[in-house]
Amino acid sequence: MGRILSMGKMIDFAGNGKSYSGYLAQSSTGSGPGVIVIQEWWGLVGHIKDVADRFAEAGFTALAPDFYHGELTDEPDEAGSLMMALQVPDAEKLINGAVEALCSDPACSTNKVGVVGFCMGGQLSMYAACINSRIGACVNYYGIHPNVQPDFAALQAPMLGFFAEHDEYASPTAVAELDRQLSQLGKEHSFTTYPGRQHAFFNSDRPEVFDQEAADDSWQKMVDLFHKLS
């Protein structure tokens, strides 16, 4: 994404009696709608911080919580192990703490915040929107996590989903089933599947799968949704 200077800083916040950390990037305009950014299975790596910075440049205040408590990797096997070691009860505390911390920040101008996640984070994004009523919009980028099962009956926020035609993780079959579940429950959602693209097409640090056109299109749709937060 061409980020040169970091706009954010690491902060600590509380979640149900526990202490967590995350990367906070405050709006370049002084204040703006709040957005929670949830990591891929690699951890809170530079790319995710770049996404938070990009939100800040666009006038949002973004917080990317650290679900791995400082652990990072660029090895797929280790990333898979870290993802599977994620404890859902701990993730719930972290999410609720992050939402509270973001809403309390003076640079957050909205009572409700958006949430977006990528890969593992996409599934956690949906989960977050189902457990916290202060999340007013949800975006899922090709989400997957076998142990994270959102209670879609509790979902109150509109959802966008962005997927790739060629994705062995979030397959077209899985996307169709998710669409069916949400439609059956009458939940507001809109899915876009980009033809010819692959999993992680938004990740500009992975040139082998990154696709500028799909990344730009999905970003604009997401920003338009988050601008409706109040």
Describe what this molecule looks like in 3D.
With 230 residues, the chain is an alpha/beta fold. It has one domain: Rossmann fold, CATH 3.40.50.1820. Strands 1-2-4-3-5-6-7-8 form an 8-stranded mixed β-sheet, with helices on both faces. It is 34% helix and 25% strand. The model has no long low-confidence stretch (mean pLDDT 96).
List the helices and strands and how they pair.
Elements: E1 8-15, E2 18-25, E3 34-38, H1 46-57, E4 61-65, H2 76-85, H3 88-104, E5 113-118, H4 120-131, E6 135-141, E7 159-166, H5 172-184, E8 189-198, H6 212-226
Parallel strand pairs: 3-4, 3-5, 5-6, 6-7, 7-8
Antiparallel strand pairs: 1-2, 2-4
Name the descriptors:
6 helices, 230 residues, alpha/beta, single chain
The CATH topology is Rossmann fold
List low-pLDDT spans. Answer: none
Helix content: 25-40%
Strand composition percent: 15-25%
Alpha carbon gap, first and last residue: 28 Å
What order do the helices and strands follow? EEEHEHHEHEEHEH
Question: What is the annotated CATH architecture?
Answer: 3-Layer(aba) Sandwich
**What is the overall pLDDT average?**
96
- Give, in spatial order, the strands making up the sheet with the most strands: 1-2-4-3-5-6-7-8
| Domain module count | 1
| Total of DSSP H or I helical runs spanning 4+ residues | 6
Largest sheet at a glance? Answer: 8 strands, mixed
Please outline what is shown here.
This protein has helices at 46-57, 76-85, 88-104, 120-131, 172-184, 212-226; strands at residues 8-15, 18-25, 34-38, 61-65, 113-118, 135-141, 159-166, 189-198.
